[in-house]
Amino acid sequence: MKFFHLSDLHIGKQLHHYSLIEDQEHILNEVIGYVKELAPDAVVIAGDIYDKSVPSAEAVSLFDEFLTRLADIQPSTAVLIISGNHDSAQRLDYASRILGRQNIHIAGSVPSQKGEYLKKVTLTDEFGEVDFYLLPFMKPGYIRGLQEEGEELPETYSEAVRYVLEREEIDTAKRNVLVSHQFYTGNGGVPDTCDSELFSVGGIDNVEIGPLMGFEYTALGHLHGAQQVQVPTIRYCGTLLKYSVSEAGHTKSLHVVELGAKGKEASVTLHPLHPLRDVRTIRGELTDILESAGEENRDDYISVTLTDEKDPYRPKEQLEKVYSHILEIRMDNTRTRKRLEEFNDEAEIADPLTVFQDFFREIQGRSLSREECGYLEHILEQVKGE
Ligand SMILES: [Mn+2]
Hints:
- The protein has 3 domains: about 1-270, Purple Acid Phosphatase, chain A, domain 2, CATH 3.60.21.10; about 280-335; about 350-385.
- Helix content is about 30%, strand content about 25%.
- It has helices at about 20-40, 55-70, 90-95, 95-100, 155-165, 285-290, 315-320, 335-350, 350-365, 370-385, and strands spanning about 1-5, 15, 20, 40-45, 80, 105, 120-125, 130-135, 175-180, 185, 205-210, 215-220, 225-230, 230-235, 255-260, 265-270, 280-285, 300-305, 325-330.
- α1 packs parallel to α2 (about 55-70).
- The longest helix is centred in the first third of the chain and has 18 residues, at about 20-40.
- The mean pLDDT is about 90.
- Manganese (II) ion binds next to loops.
- Belongs to the SbcD family.
């Protein structure tokens, strides 16, 4: 059994102010090429199909084109899709029953009523059946309707995922694959994150990988950097494209998973991807940067850090003559570093009450009243006491 593991397409995404639709079309075409070449049994997409819950017409038609071209390829390839936190579960579920007949299996929503279960797709190879369980992005609140009389429902993300998987009564004598879009963490490991991901603050959404251990492979989405979680068979494939400057150093590749007989560990092969435009960071003095610009990569998305001690004359205009897609221009010299230090010094001096007052004024557009200030002082005293 061979399948492609994709996730986080984020179709319709913008990088700074540039639309990435051309880049996405280009990279999805490369995926189609790989499907023709490698003839996988399935293409799995582990959530975040679109960048927005209400995608643009342009984004929808690009994904439609991708699915149509996949469906035209012979021998037929199954397509397995779950929704991510960026997708609208209902919109993705639209027409999913009809699409199922085309071998396109979409799970938009997690079971929310008694009697509902995860969408399961069974594919067969020379070693027998493989059950793919499609677990869309979920929060503990989504599964309140599953509660049995007198049963306590899970409160944390970890408990909620465990709960949903345990009620499936998965046949562990068979080969099973899970597709999921959550923030999974292993034993004490902290996953690598980057700037294009969207998380809730405080890390309350993390899910322990314990319940995944029984699967031959878990195809994950959510994190945009490719990485395994504790074991090689629980894996984030990452995005097909670099979606932030913080990913400039990433290598994006197509993940191809192969399952042998039951009990044999799944293998993952990485195939190179060739973006239309790369995302790069360039650092140096303006004249050096202008002189060293090569002909071949002038259309890349670039983040420039200028180190000139003397502020150059209209750097943006000069750089635009050479580079067509400039994401940002930063200055890093003695002056900017000194300003940063001064800023840090100030921040250290300020007491918590002043910091909060400034914050409140910025967000609310008014100062704290005397009464509110009193409350705040009281709370701060209490915290200090503890
Ligand atoms: Mn994502």
